[in-house]
Automatic annotation (TrEMBL):
Protein name listed in UniProt: DUF2510 domain-containing protein
Residue ranges, annotated region (Disordered): 1-53
Biased composition (Pro residues): 1-11
Cited InterPro entries: DUF2510 (IPR018929)
Coiled-coil residue spans: none
TM ranges: 58-78
Boundaries of every DUF2510 domain copy: 10-38
Keywords, sorted A to Z: Membrane, Transmembrane, Transmembrane helix
Pfam family for this entry, one: DUF2510
Superkingdom per UniProt: Bacteria
Amino acid sequence: MTDDAPQPPAGWYPTPDGSQRYWNGESWLSLPEPSRSPLPTEPAEATPTHRSSRRTSVLVASVLVAVLLVVGGGALVWKLVTDQQAAVAAQEAADRAAVKEEAAQRAADAKAAAAKEAEASERKLRADSVPGIEDSIRAMAEKHIADGLIDGPVLSIDCSPVNGGSTDDLTEQTTVFECFVANVDNGDGTLSGYSYNSTMNWDTGSYTYGIGAP
């Protein structure tokens, strides 16, 4: 270049070897070659904001996930606790029902045993009453012998419920007895004698008796 020629404006200019040099308007300067990557522009300045927004979104998403995990975990724990409490309550209810049922069964067994014992006692009382009836019939027959109404002596007395009855039949409130007063031994294993009778009222525990068939 000559001094009279117009000078190009200052700036970076390419060289034959493909590099760039800086012209300050008067001379070439040995400045480091600028980077070949494009300089930041206005859209590039928004990039940090975009990345920040993305980070914020990721952070919010992470927080939401954490919250969901906490809420979900809390719900799971609540369900487990609720299920456990329900199971315990059900078991306690079953235990109470079992205890109640066992108590009811014991009461039923005790009632049945008491009823059975009462029946056995009533049967024994009725059976023990027969000898008392027979004693009363004997006393009456001996008086009749003394009065000359029948012949003596009194060999034996047997009183039995009529019509195949039994003192074990606790549904009967009265029992009629046919009594036989033997005064003769026939020698063939049979006896002869007189008929007497008695009627027992089990409700009152009293009885009547007399001579003759019932």
